[in-house]
């Protein structure tokens, strides 16, 4: 990170899958008029490209090369991979599970690190993921660790999938989510963990608006304006 970019403020929002961090990050960024980074999308895009290209998902170097060569663009709600909108494809559970697996590969994380840091643009960035506050933006003035009960998260994901027209089984999602949580929290490289200076927010019983307000209140408590 260069000196000029480190002066651009960042709010990081880390947490387990389906904790709502993506939705919260977008809403906070909208309130502040900032850029948003969905880091998970980059790992999901890599997983999709690995699958589409027939790359061996166990070959860490080959997977990292796929990530290095990704032709990606974020255009509002559209996620473009080589000119094709794959926003719905990368949200499928099989892609999410593959993304969780390959996310443990050090060469892949290295390949995506600078690409993620390049999103740090004025007037500010809200970045969501699993290691935003611990690895990617350790100097962020506000770090949020968003938690939620695993069953509440599974129910949210089940609802999201059904609303998008995908079939979903709650018990299967719950099992997959527990396995993914364990994998994310115990991986050797950049495990899912709250940064020492992060503010932990449990969104299990909070609405989206309430959670967004908690984050904005933390931001304003640092002496910054809460919104545009």
TrEMBL record:
Q: Which UniProt keywords apply?
A: ATP-binding, Cytoplasm, Kinase, Nucleotide-binding, Transferase
Q: Which residues bind ATP?
A: 15-23
Which CDD domains does this chain map to? Answer: CMPK
What Enzyme Commission number(s) appear in the record? 2.7.4.25
List localization entries: Cytoplasm
| Assigned GO CC terms | cytosol
Q: Where is the Cytidylate kinase domain?
A: 11-219
From the UniProt record, list the reaction(s) this protein catalyses: dCMP + ATP = dCDP + ADP; CMP + ATP = CDP + ADP
User: Which GO terms of the molecular function aspect are on file?
Assistant: ATP binding; CMP kinase activity; dCMP kinase activity
InterPro entries reported for this sequence: Cytidylate_kin (IPR003136), Cytidylate_kinase_dom (IPR011994), P-loop_NTPase (IPR027417)
Supply one GO BP term: nucleobase-containing small molecule interconversion
According to the record, the segments passing through the membrane are: none
Which NCBIfam families does the record associate with it? cmk
Q: Which HAMAP family does UniProt cross-reference here?
A: Cytidyl_kinase_type1
* Family affiliation: Belongs to the cytidylate kinase family. Type 1 subfamily.
Q: Supply the name of the protein.
A: Cytidylate kinase
What is the organism of origin for this protein? Pollutimonas nitritireducens
Q: Taxonomic lineage of this organism?
A: Bacteria, Pseudomonadati, Pseudomonadota, Betaproteobacteria, Burkholderiales
């Amino acid at each position: 990170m260069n000196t000029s970019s480190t002066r651009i403020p960042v709010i990081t929002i880390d947490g387990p899958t389906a904790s709502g961090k993506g939705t919260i990050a977008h809403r906070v960024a909208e309130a502040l008029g900032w850029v948003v980074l969905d880091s998970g999308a980059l790992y999901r895009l890599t997983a999709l490209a690995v699958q589409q290209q027939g790359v061996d998902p166990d070959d860490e170097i080959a997977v990292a090369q796929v990530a290095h060569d990704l032709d990606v663009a974020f255009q509002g709600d559209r996620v473009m991979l080589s000119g094709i909108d794959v926003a719905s494809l990368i949200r499928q559970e099989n892609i999410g599970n593959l993304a969780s697996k390959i996310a443990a590969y050090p060469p892949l994380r290295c390949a995506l690190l600078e690409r993620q840091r390049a999103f740090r643009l004025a007037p500010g960035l809200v970045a969501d993921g699993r290691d935003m506050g611990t690895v990617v933006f350790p100097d962020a003035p506000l770090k949020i660790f968003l938690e939620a009960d695993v069953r509440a998260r599974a129910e949210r994901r089940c609802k999201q999938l059904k609303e998008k027209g995908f079939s979903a089984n709650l018990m299967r999602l719950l099992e997959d989510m527990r396995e993914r949580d364990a994998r994310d929290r115990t991986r050797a490289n950049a495990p899912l963990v709250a940064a020492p200076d992060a503010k932990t927010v449990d969104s299990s019983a909070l609405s989206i608006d309430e959670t967004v307000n908690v984050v904005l209140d933390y931001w304003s408590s640092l002496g910054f304006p809460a919104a545009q």
